[in-house]
Amino acid sequence: MITPEIKQQFISIVGSDWVKDSPNELYAYSYDATPMFQSLPDVVVMPATSGEVSALLRLANEHGIPVIPRGSGTNLAASTIPVQGGLVLQLHRMNRIHEIDTQNLTATVGPGVITADLHQAVEAYGLFYPPDPGSMRISTLGGNLSQCAGGMRGLKYGVTKDYVMGLEYVLPSGEIFRCGGKNVKDVAGYDMTRLLVGSEGTLAVITEITLKLLPLPETKRTLLAFFTSLVDAAKTVEQVIAAKIIPATMEFMDQGTMRVVDEYAKLGLPLEMKSMLLIEQDGPEELVSKDIASIAEIARANGAASVEVAATLEEGAKLLTARRSALSALSRIKPTTIMEDATVPRSRLADMVAEVERIADKYDLQICTFGHAGDGNLHPTCMTDERNKQEIERVEQAFAEIFAAAIALGGTITGEHGVGLAKLNYLPLKVGEGGIELMRRIKAAFDPNHIMNPGKIFAGSARRRMVVRR
Amino acid sequence: MITPEIKQQFISIVGSDWVKDSPNELYAYSYDATPMFQSLPDVVVMPATSGEVSALLRLANEHGIPVIPRGSGTNLAASTIPVQGGLVLQLHRMNRIHEIDTQNLTATVGPGVITADLHQAVEAYGLFYPPDPGSMRISTLGGNLSQCAGGMRGLKYGVTKDYVMGLEYVLPSGEIFRCGGKNVKDVAGYDMTRLLVGSEGTLAVITEITLKLLPLPETKRTLLAFFTSLVDAAKTVEQVIAAKIIPATMEFMDQGTMRVVDEYAKLGLPLEMKSMLLIEQDGPEELVSKDIASIAEIARANGAASVEVAATLEEGAKLLTARRSALSALSRIKPTTIMEDATVPRSRLADMVAEVERIADKYDLQICTFGHAGDGNLHPTCMTDERNKQEIERVEQAFAEIFAAAIALGGTITGEHGVGLAKLNYLPLKVGEGGIELMRRIKAAFDPNHIMNPGKIFAGSARRRMVVRR
């Protein structure tokens, strides 16, 4: 409960412009990009400095007010839904790129910096920040860290956690700490940096981020291959790796996704094909040419019905944009689009896609699958309508089976979206009840009063209140 | 206190051949590679399976017996000294390479596998495990994980933590858990994998490890450059990076180290030079040629008095072996050799080396410096004699100043050795007392009875007993 006195204290910390609690404003922060989850916060507060974050957290901690750190709310696991009400800590004002250090190849930024803005800023120096989640034009780096966002370059370049070198973070107690820094090697105590990345705002608030950068690859080239069978596409992926080639990007779309994307982006894709691979290699020109030629050969040897190489960088970018539009394109089909990210070891890709098809048939659902083939990170996406209660029940059952199938294949319930609210019932499949208990104890080490994003990751504490449906 | 009844229970778990408590045997496990630290354990037990580890831990936990997991004892932070006595859990029998998965590019191994044995095994498949700590021919992968070992390839390839994808681990309670796996992307809950790596055996016992592999680079080439000034060498390192070249290895030796290494390995180095860089690039032939030519040019432009490129792979390997022998060579000079690993952001390399020289002069000590220039990871190494109490006191003061200097330059107290006993007094410099308190609470989440490697990382609990000096 936020009393007028507490609200006054919030105002004295950040100023009255940055404390919002009108019904319209609360509504705007009641949902994120995850369909079918919504709950109103009690107040939205927008700090501009670590000091303000610290003062707000101390106050919230004292009064047992839930705190939900938030960037752009693009996450797909309902991780920023204020399921127990409380204070949405909206961090978009902390959006400065503090430094691009060209000697140590690092960037130091506020959590509110937009991912694509950082890309652009470092590319101006010939540098490269590889993580490129689908939402990168909207998402913030703070949000990327909270969820350990992935993207299309996971196989060759890794994901967000592989680029976080140092953090400033604030505990619920208000204490401001730093971990890591600009050192390539640093083993002074436990690796707090990696623990905070992917913790979904349940441990602390990240207020400054030092990221590792790479030299920008000299060039890149894009190849499309179309297959009459799913297995041939998966074999191509396997044999490219077996040939010791690690492409920057290896994206997969099934026939359903191809159709929808083609209609949306007017690409003239051969829609009679069962699946498509979009492969990109980057690096020095001579190497890129050699790798793309080898990949084309491998695709043909594995039954690709056609292989095209983009003639120019622009053409390559257009193809990649088409792949990036898959979710938007699919979203136009039906009122509700549920995108999941069941993930398997790369060698089980074909098995997993087949499982998704079998399960979609079994429950009579429209599920299209696309994703990051090189990572085994699939996005089975269900087009449905949340008003159709019967169908939604079948959707839930189907996804439960999809997650179980991923685990049976040595995979995981989430590759890059996170657990949040959307998957907390499935987490025991992956880490066991004992593993969850251990994580709860780690959370208590940071947040003994359980104010940080309560109800997320861990089941059993998700008491919902004031749910307003869209 | 280990009673005859408890000893009998150890024997019933692992068999009488694998429980050691004769004075000679206890003595052999009373020290590791860190000079001037020694303490006798009460018993040494050598399990062969996770089940045995689990049973041993449950028993130790019940009776409050300290447990010190141990591989080959090559660590340099006194992390495996049984400073409170107890049970040394010697893991060398868990030395099977369970699987090399050429499709998913992973290796799954027991913690007792020797690092160099894994290198050899995966290279037979054209694959590559980059971490190469100095002790790799003796050290175990379990030990590498416990300390988050580094090596010569940190800049381009990262360190141990960057290659750990999945673990099986045992809690003091005896519970056997798994985290991570073969998935390139996996965000199901907190990243336990990265938390356990570098935790120095204070949280749990690692019983199985899944490591990421890369394709083995096609070739490599080695370049030596000699400089009449330290600053020129540091500028060369900076400008190579500024030219967007990331070499596989960039090693630095000062004049003192060069002299000792040359005497040991008979290389005919130009000993009038003030410093030397050994740079190696790997990758496809055409790229390696281009990079090595660019690096040679940059070195010359920055005042290198001479630049040599190894004519053959064998010649390159010989030069690298010479660098690898630096510690052995330095160890021959005086009875006691103390190697440290103060680390700074790469751009502060020259400043840090100058600080080390200034501090060595101030305390009238012989300190040679070599290390991983690309990482800013330096190994100032003091040749001394532990019987000379007066000098040892000056050594302690000098290193305290060296660590403070590293921190002042934005660096850290340890880049790749760990905290252990040797540096626990310096940890507050890097993470603050509050940061240490947070780490203590995390430890308690794993190990509520404080049986796991007690006295390490955290100061104040290092009650010594039965110290036997060499």
Automatic annotation (TrEMBL), chains A, B:
Taxonomic superkingdom: Bacteria
Stretches assigned to the FAD-binding PCMH-type domain: 37-216
InterPro entries per UniProt: FAD-bd_oxidored_4_C, FAD-bd_PCMH, FAD-bd_PCMH-like_sf, FAD-bd_PCMH_sub2, FAD-linked_Oxase-like_C, FAD-linked_OxidoTrans_Type4, Oxid_FAD_bind_N, Vanillyl_alc_oxidase_C-sub2
Keyword entries, A-Z: FAD, Flavoprotein, Oxidoreductase
Entry's transmembrane regions: none
Co-factor(s): FAD
GO molecular function, one term: oxidoreductase activity
Residues in coiled coil: none
Family affiliation: Belongs to the FAD-binding oxidoreductase/transferase type 4 family.
UniProt-recorded name of the protein: FAD-binding protein
